[in-house]
Design a protein that fits this description.
Number of helices of chain A: 9
Structural class of chain A: alpha/beta
Strand order of the largest sheet of chain A: 5-4-1-6-7-8
Order of helices and strands of chain A: EEHHHHEHEHEHEHEEH
Number of strands of chain A: 8
Oligomer: homodimer
Shape of chain A: globular
Chain lengths: 230, 230
């Protein structure tokens, strides 16, 4: 089926979460990178658990909660100013270097693009704007509208409703293997950007395609839509 | 509200998952402990993601899938015999030393006890039996009956239906902070056995009580039910 719009995950896909490590290392020398890794793990875990428990809080809150846990687990006590500095880093993430050229190529072909993310609308507007990617996207879709995080079907359904397309006419691009798997299970086409050479997630589905960089995406997409005809 | 029955989580609460490390270290010297830690993390992650994605597979399958991922991530290639040995270790987990005496005290008081676990009925029967705890429990309740893993409400609802009690009349005992939180959000009373001094999970709810050993449970429960009257 021909792909009519492309959805991008934000954190870890367009935006490099590990870029927070610089701020964290400055505040907590020798522990910043570990802090950010644990923080990210807990942020995702809380997003899943709250969705399962029907106990939604928005991603800013979940992110603050996860920082609070991660710092406590490492015996760190960031003061309010340090917490604020770490939190605001989510709005100033560095884009991956392959993001801007890959998006530019797709835009030049007239492909409609959107972000589909767990982030709140405010977090997404700030981070995508700060990364200089704001004018690439027709929409920044936040799961906050349905109060359920990925991989809940309602999160992916947002994109189906926004574009008025069949799930199989939409492509979700994510570097998060679990997101690519969840979107595949939902029925979207999926492109997994596996920058780190990670094993594929074993959850009973396989992404439609994968690559090692966002630059692999336009190449694959052209072949795919050419093969699909008209 | 007086507690009328007590539910125990199995893996990590009654049974020591880290006891698999011995088998794993024998098969993969120097990497076994890391393998088991990653295996357990992925097992839980897959249970959450499959429930969110409505893509259930039973816990034996999820456990095998998680092993497959964890081994690949560490560059290990267990052959089928080694895989089998690692899998069967889930049915031969060592009980924590505090489990048997704590259960015996509660049984001697006439408190109805059950297991409420993600494990399949076959996995639970084997592991609880092997640990010598089989005669303590009125029932081994497996979420397999509802094809949704904790912390989905349906998983905890199983216990409500089994005992025909109000959620607040049941106590869930778990060493897994996320399980204690999920059961609390559902409406059960909860006792978190925090053996490792971990921070409490920041997901918007707090367990009813906590202790550092299962031996703290009978003490707390006696006070609680005494205070609650008759």
């Amino acid at each position: 089926m021909k792909i009519r719009a492309v959805l991008f995950d934000a954190y870890g896909t367009l935006l490099d979460v590990s870029s927070i490590g610089e701020t964290a290392e400055r505040l907590f020398p020798g522990q910043g990178v570990t802090l950010v890794r644990l923080w990210r793990d807990k942020q995702l875990q809380y997003s899943w658990l709250r969705t399962l428990s029907r106990n939604y809080a928005d991603f800013w809150q979940v992110t603050a909660d996860a920082l609070d846990y991660a710092a406590a687990a490492l015996g760190l006590s960031p003061d309010p100013a340090e917490q604020g500095e770490l939190m605001v880093a989510w709005e100033r993430l560095a884009p991956f270097p392959d993001a801007s050229p890959a998006l530019a190529t797709l835009v030049s072909r007239g492909m409609p693009l959107a972000v589909l993310s767990n982030g709140t609308p405010a977090m997404l507007a700030a981070a995508i704007g700060h990364a200089g990617l704001g004018d690439r996207f027709a929409a920044l879709l936040s799961v906050d509208a349905v109060a359920q995080y990925k991989t809940a079907p309602a999160a992916y359904q947002l994109a189906v409703e926004h574009f008025g397309a069949a799930p199989g006419e939409l492509l979700l691009v994510s570097s998060n293997g679990w997101d690519a798997a969840g979107a595949t299970a939902f029925g979207l086409q999926t492109f997994w950007v596996n920058r780190s050479g990670a094993p594929v997630e074993r959850v009973g589905v396989t992404p439609t395609a994968s690559g090692t960089s966002l630059l692999d995406l336009p190449v694959w997409l052209e072949a795919r839509n050419g093969a699909a005809g008209g």
